Amino acid sequence: MILKNFRRLAFRLFQAWEALVFTTAFLAGLLALHDRGIIDFQAFWDPAYLSIFAVLAVLWVWLLHALALYSSRRLITRANETVSVLGAVVIAAGFMAVLGALIGLPMNQAPFLISFVAICSALMIIGRTLCRMFLRTARAHGRNLRFVAVVGAGHEGQNLARKILSNPANGYQLLGFFDHAMSMDRLPRDLKRGGSLEDLTQRMMREPVDEVLITLPFCSHYDEIFDIVERCRRVGVPVRVVGDFLTPSDMHPSIEFIGETASLRFSHEPNWGWQKQTKSVFDFTISGLTLLIFAPLLIAIAVAIKLDSPGPVLFSQTRVGKNKKPFRLFKFRSMRQDAEAMQAALETQNEAGGPVFKIRNDPRVTRLGQFLRRHSLDELPQLLNVLRGEMSIVGPRPLPLRDVKRFEHDWHSRRFSVRPGLTCSWVLAGRSEIDFDKWVAMDLDYIDNWSLMKDLKICLHTIPTVLKGAGAY
Question: What is this structure's pTM?
């Protein structure tokens, strides 16, 4: 009981430290604004500002819980934890930037955001690194251990046990293997024997068991696995089924509930976890801020389009989005009003391979439209689609219904497993000049190997590509 209370106290102190980190970073951001004469620091002692800060501090603690940053991190690498921390800090900074823009506080100013992100990230990473070092040392000396039993003495179970035993600092202690006598006879002598499957229940009733790991072949031992899970349920011990569920290499499994019934779902949609939420916040924040910052440019383009040629400023067209759901995509009009009606007559001049339609010197494009298309300025209204959740900043480009209906290969359709984007990796490889099959292959590579860092790199490389107008027509 004393040890349990000590752990609870240590956890609360660690939470208090990270709340202090947020406070320090927030004050550092205000100090940066004060040094540049943007604000009077004394003004933030006003009760209204203090109440806003209090709400932000509570949301910060909630965010860390929501992103599972206070769950067990024993098997999480330092690099993965660093990425998780940076993601939380970026989400917090993005939220404060949007909030600042909405209520008129300077939290959306660059000095504040840079100072907040730098200080908060550094102190969070330092604190968690020191905590990790302390816990690993304690576990290596027999403290803060988790006792696990492995059911299944085959190769799968043996490999798992050796991984557990190879790093004592993770704090896992193997109670032993539990399996049928024939399987136990083939168990190497250096691995601890726990007993038969019938012995497992007695061990769980009489000794501390933190978790049971089942490594039996799923298909041939389904009934036994179900029976062991039920035994663990009755004695209140968590159980984990480890193994190959005949999952195709490019399918992503996830546990979902239909009512109260658990189901194992296989999907091509990547299991991006917390990074998926981070990407959504990134999309919402960047699209909102960009629309605000570039509002004068958007107005100027709209006026120029009106002066250049007759017709509406915006062009909308049905495009195919995630899971092939149609949506209305917005663009600045860069062609004549009757451009879509003229396309049928121009099909024989199509210069693009595959189902897409592109002409280098398209007669439908207006004078201003040529400039807008070369520098992708006609795409800016799609930030509204991003803000509405129909698109992402980075993702496969959305295709018209006409192009999708002409798909000849089923594997092309997997590009619709994620939201379409404003920019993507093939934009950097030549934009309109690359072959359609290569285009789709690059989209699928993006989906299969996605990361927040990859999105950031694509965004940074898109800027000079668009400014140069390379490969666009």
Answer: 0.56
Judged against a pLDDT cut of 80, whether residue 116 lies above it is answered with yes
Q: What is the DSSP letter of 171?
A: -
Name every residue whose Cβ is closer than 8 Å to that of residue 13 and which is 6 or more positions away in sequence: none
Lowest mean pLDDT among 2-6, 318-322, 437-441: 2-6
Q: Give the separation between CA 390 and CA 72, rounded to whole angstroms.
A: 35
Answer whether residue 103 shows pLDDT above 60: yes
Q: In what order do the strands lie in the sheet with 193-195?
A: 193-195, 172-178, 146-151, 211-214, 239-241
Residue linked to tokens 């390379």? 470
- Residue 424: what residue type? C
β-bridge pairing 314-320 and 326-332: antiparallel
> Residues spanned by CATH 3.40.50.720 within the chain?
146-246
DSSP code at position 212: E
Is 404 within 8 Å of 410 (Cβ atoms)?
Answer: no
Rounded mean pLDDT, 368-388: 91
Identity of residue 362? D
Instruction: Give the gyration radius of the chain's Cα atoms.
Output: 28
For the domain made up of 146-246, give the CATH fold. Answer: Rossmann fold (3.40.50)
Q: Which of 62, 63, 53, 54 is nearest to 30 (CA)?
A: 53
pLDDT tens digits along 118-153:
999 999 999 988 888 887 777 666 676 788 889 888
